[in-house]
Amino acid sequence: MDYIYASNRPWAINTFLEARSYLMGNWLLVTNTNDLLRAVDATKPKYIFFPHWSELVPAELTQTYDCVCFHMTDVPYGRGGSPLQNLIKRGVRVTKLTALKMEEKMDAGPVYKKDELNLAGSAEEIFIRMTKLAITQIQYIVENDPKPISQSNEKYESFKRRSPADSEIKDEHSIEELFDQIRMLDATGYPRAFLNKNGFNFEFSNASFSDGDAIDAHVKITKLKTE
């Protein structure tokens, strides 16, 4: 049986390569839409899995194949964009990773599996933890071919996708909130938490608590461009 693993984030690709040897079936790794379409034409896969995929999945695929994505909330709560950042902003410390069938409406498809996911650490650490959990869910789906269960709308709440401007430090009222603002954006390819002052941009990463009431962090300082 043929399967496709589609991802364009380094942590998701590395985790898959480590797990590939024990996953049942024949696997293809793709990292962009053109390669995805070619792989689908060549293999006609049983499932296509999308952990950390940032490109639009063509409707022709979701309508023809069992396409599975992984959403970091206990859906129907938290459908929509930027789930990690929206959860941390709301003070959530433990969530669910949901493996669900992709349909036309975002994050509204039936659910294959849900598992608990801890949100401690930097965004990249969480994404690595999430991907390892997604691999166990993939293994379960491949080995058991479960029928996904439709979502109810009892706890429906959608999240708004964040923009790079939302990374600015401005609404934090405690040391804990400031720490969360830095860590939730600290991942490869994400706009880091930043502060603009006196003509300079201060960009923060690698944050940790020092003595319980202070933050140690790496700060990159660049001069703001003037028109």
Kindly describe this structure.
The protein is an alpha/beta fold and 227 residues long. The chain folds into 2 domains: 2-159, Formyl transferase, N-terminal domain (Rossmann fold, 3-Layer(aba) Sandwich); 164-223, Methionyl-tRNA Fmet Formyltransferase, Chain A, domain 2 (Roll), CATH 3.10.25.20. Helix content is 29%, strand content 30%. The chain is built from 6 helices and 11 strands. The chain has helices spanning 10-19, 33-43, 59-64, 83-89, 123-144, 175-183, and strands at 2-6, 26-30, 47-50, 66-71, 77-80, 94-101, 111-118, 157-159, 193-197, 200-210, 214-223. The chain has a 6-stranded mixed β-sheet with strand order 2-1-3-4-6-7, sandwiched between helices. A 3-stranded antiparallel β-sheet has the order 9-10-11. Strands 5-8 form a two-stranded parallel ribbon. α3 links the parallel β3 and β4. The radius of gyration is 19 Å and the shape is globular. The N and C termini lie far apart (58 Å). The model has no long low-confidence stretch (mean pLDDT 94).
